[in-house]
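User: Run a structure prediction on this.
Assistant: Running it now.
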Amino acid sequence: MAGGAPALAEDKAIVMEEIQVTAPKEKSAGTLTVPSNEEAEKEIKKAPGGVNVVAEETFEDTYTLNFEDTLALVPGAYAQKRFGEEVRLSLRGSGLARGFHLLGLRLLQDGIPYNLADGSGDFQEMDFLALQRIEVYKGGNALQYGGITLGGAINLITKNGKSHPGQMFRFDGGSDQTFRLHVQSGYQFDKSDLFVSVTATTSDGFRDHADQENVKFNSNYGLQLSDTVETRFYLSTNVIAQELPGTLTLGEALSNPENANPSAITQNWQRDINSVRFSNKTTFDLGGGRFADVGAYVNHKNLYHPITSFVGVIDQTSVDYGVFAQAYGTYTLSGYKNEFRGGVLSQFGHTNALVFQNIGGARGALTADQDLSAETVVLYGENHFYFNPKWALVTGGQVIYAGREAENKLNPARSDSQTTATFNPRVGVMYHHTPAIQMFANVTRSYEPPDFTNLTQGGAAGFVPLSAQKAWTVEVGTRGQHGRASWDIALYRAWVDDELLQFTTGPGFPASTFNADATIHQGVEAGLDFLLVENLLQGGDRLQWRNAYTYSDFNFDGNAQHGDNTLPGQPPHFYQTELRYAHQDKWFVAPTLEAASSAYVDFSNRLKAPGYAILGFTAGYTVNKSIDLFANGRNMLDKNFISTFSTIATPTAFNQAAFYPGDDRRIFGGVRLKF
């Protein structure tokens, strides 16, 4: 179940009733390597902090392209489209000022790292139609996945042959000459299962120079080696071609939002990716409620990325690989129940990073040639000690080692290396007020070394002298259900040292990164769901109101230059709501509203992106057990608004092309055939 409607675990040491969740009933059991959505829902709610599970039912009946679509109605998740699949994705202000790609979050697929070894990452390779759920771990609640950053982790769980047997064909189409075909097949055998999916998309995009074409292949094969051992192999490939329309000034973005940045056209800005990913995870049932996982992965990617004339054509070939192992389960200590999890996660990466002059999107003269090597190793452990039937003490920690090395082949004097190591402790409590209501609190330290984009900025001699970002975060909250209301509320405050912040310095210049000394991140993440009507017509009718509100208060703390100014990058108030009426599992209609307050764009707090409120809807109709129809409307009042922006230092006449306009009215529809 997604967003703010929680479900609580049925703990073996505590007699608890299962909460009746409002999401659709789990369609099949899980496997050793991939728990079912229902099992995952129970397990994730043991965390003493903000977590959410987004089941596929919440994003299948709409045109789902990126995290803006899939994380809608998840409190605390700020995901706003830049173009195509790329969004500004932030939890608790993670990567707040990063104007491109991913920073400050660990992204995983089936628990296996998706980020590059230096911590950066991309969004384009995700195929959300191949997923059965998304798990969101905010802040220190991501410890089990090596989540060492302020934001936490997002784990994408792929469909498999057991969870999704049979065949499905899906066709989407709509505005901007958008067409998408998705085909998937799931098979169950005596002791194994197989899942394969292919998704092909083509779209002209809302803005000029925003065409995209991509083909995404995902597959996994699970084999039961014995009654207690299961292994699963994953293989995915992607061929992606994406034009980049760039940013505009505020006036341009609000008056002519479909326009591209003129340089994007003349210099043919693009981001083209070809990638192959192979991984394995093996799970052992050790008996007595104890389990162990071991696995490994390798990812090969080619990136061709013409961008500004100042940067040039980025041409990279990277290989990332890693191994992981963990043990988890239940044991008894002096008559008291304990739940434990501990393991090691290692990532290694090598990138041959070439940069050429940009000649209309083609390679000109070679301007940079570097070999970039990164390694990150996280050793972690966490224990839940139930010292009475209602209370659990949670203790844990991480040991982190990170290494970064750049060999500059054109100018060896600019080669450099950096290693860092630290320990992050964690302590928390869980209180079961009633079988249906939990309260929690935790204190966690986070740590984030700079990635290569930050370390090698501006052609400096060697690495830019940046420190790792550190933070102590305190979090309290509650989740539960009472009657027809359910909630998921967390309040947090983080004291951050050496926060990695970026700003745009001028036209054609890359963003600069600096350490910000002391900053404060604090906020509220509130999900509230209400089942307003049930069985009104005695035929399974339901009227449900879902709400997600995120309050974000991020600011400098006595900065020498900026005082206590607000950190730019995210609106302080962000609200999403949906009112869904479903009739007898036959059809549904759900109007939606998204609203955001104005947000500062610059560190001097002189320029703001205006707030907005946009209306949309989703609707679906089940013809029979094999055919479903669906429709999705966005920005139905056709308002011009700012979706997101890049941060700048102080507004000048040269650096205000920082805004990404939101899409105007869009209509999409589709059909799904199941056999």
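The longest helix spans residues 37-44.
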